[in-house]
Please model this.
Amino acid sequence: MPTIRRWPLLGLLILLLPMVGLAQALTESQYQALNNDILVVNQAEFAAMVAASDYAAITAKYNLQAVPDFWVWRTQIAEKELYEATAYDGSSWNWTTYIGQSVQERDGWALMNRPGTINPSLPQVRGAFDKIFSGTGASATQRAYLYAISKRQALRGEALFANTTGGNGQVATPALLVVVGYLSFQDVFYALTGHRP
Model:
């Protein structure tokens, strides 16, 4: 009987195996940068953890919010969040402003959001904010909100790999994400040992 129960679990694992390849992997140069950040740049902070082979503790440090704050453009915002969230600066969506836009501007906005999400890290998306909500007054306030909701503070690992050629990570000049999300134990282990766990 226990053997029969294992078959559904084995089948599920076989079905999920191809999805493992969909996870974002670091490049060799990124692993080298992580190695250098741990062993050289932040040697004093990580020396005891490296000596103890405490890769989980090192990973946890890279998955905390970067200090000092490091701002990046978000790569995905759901349409619902645009309408319901409050940005870091306290601003929010204004339906009266949206309703006051021209038919063409409202059509452009609807078309842009048709997939259900937008990627404000792309300059053409931010350019659409400027075109659809151009002008001063209420339109400028709505545009400022869209810019505010399009930024977030990066994790330490994200900040390490961020592209700063177009922005230096300040709130007014966000950087672009290259690696999105948490680093894994395997990432840190491989960066420090050169072996896969």
Q: What stands out?
A: Strands lie at 71-73, 77-78, 117-118, 151-153. Residues 71-153 form one domain. The first strand starts at residue 71 and ends at 73. The radius of gyration is 22 Å.
